[in-house]
Write a sequence for this structure.
């Protein structure tokens, strides 16, 4: 398994498998399986919403949302179309046609926090330099109107962590939790765990969700992440430091 992970560092399924080996991190991982009609039917029976994602893919491309809207009926949403199917078997056949020969995962849908009805998740950025992971910061992404993906490349808008949490929960519900530290601590645990399987990875963009119960979930670990979101960070000098660090870690990798 380790050799495969090193060979295909971009595969969502392999990264999920590696993290699932870490028992302490499992509470933060959505239930995930490789897509087959059988695995889809099992998942949609257990979860009201599931997402299908290309095993190799980025920037929200090719993601499909499936909702069990009522007994015996599923709604399938792509970026441009919506299909209604009666029964999980019929939905599975439609999905198989949509996916074709590509390898997909099927993942438990998380009840993301929302602002004015739009889902919000967060990007955490880390780089490994001089043998240690450095945490750069967190930025939120609010989905564009009528979209279910938050990706910046898909029209998502940047939002700062505290602003997002305050709007989603209200300050009273947030209490005195230090969310920056909570997310930083988890992100460093995730980075160290991934390092066991991907020793050459020096960049991580962790997409995390916070649900209505204030539980943190890892949605995806990106090993060559975009960082344009951080132009909007409260620390005005942070984006330039990130860009400089990216140049350094990528140059060092080329010299290996």
């Amino acid at each position: 398994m380790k050799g495969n992970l090193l060979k295909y560092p971009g595969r969502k399924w392999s990264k999920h498998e590696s993290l699932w080996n870490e028992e302490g991190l499992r509470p933060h991982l959505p239930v995930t399986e490789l897509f087959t009609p059988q695995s889809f039917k099992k998942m949609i029976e257990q979860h009201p919403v599931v997402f299908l994602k290309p095993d190799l893919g980025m920037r929200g491309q090719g993601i499909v949302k499936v909702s069990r809207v009522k007994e015996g009926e599923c709604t399938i949403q792509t970026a441009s179309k919506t299909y209604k199917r009666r029964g999980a078997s019929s939905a599975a056949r439609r999905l198989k046609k949509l996916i074709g020969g590509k390898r997909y995962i099927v993942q438990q849908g998380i009840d993301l926090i929302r602002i004015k009805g739009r889902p919000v998740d967060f990007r955490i950025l880390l780089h490994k330099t001089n043998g240690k992971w450095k945490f750069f910061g967190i930025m939120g992404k609010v989905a564009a109107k009528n979209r279910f993906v938050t990706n910046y490349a898909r029209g998502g808008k940047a939002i700062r962590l505290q602003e997002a949490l305050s709007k989603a929960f209200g300050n009273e519900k947030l209490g005195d939790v230090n969310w920056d530290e909570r997310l930083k601590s988890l992100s460093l645990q995730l980075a160290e765990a991934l390092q066991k399987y991907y020793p050459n990875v020096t960049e991580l963009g962790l997409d995390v969700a916070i649900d209505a119960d204030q539980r943190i979930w890892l949605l995806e670990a990106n090993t060559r992440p975009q960082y344009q979101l951080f132009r909007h960070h409260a620390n005005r000098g942070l984006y330039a430091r990130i860009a400089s660090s990216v140049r350094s870690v990528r140059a060092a990798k080329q010299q290996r």
Notes: The longest strand covers residues 118-129.
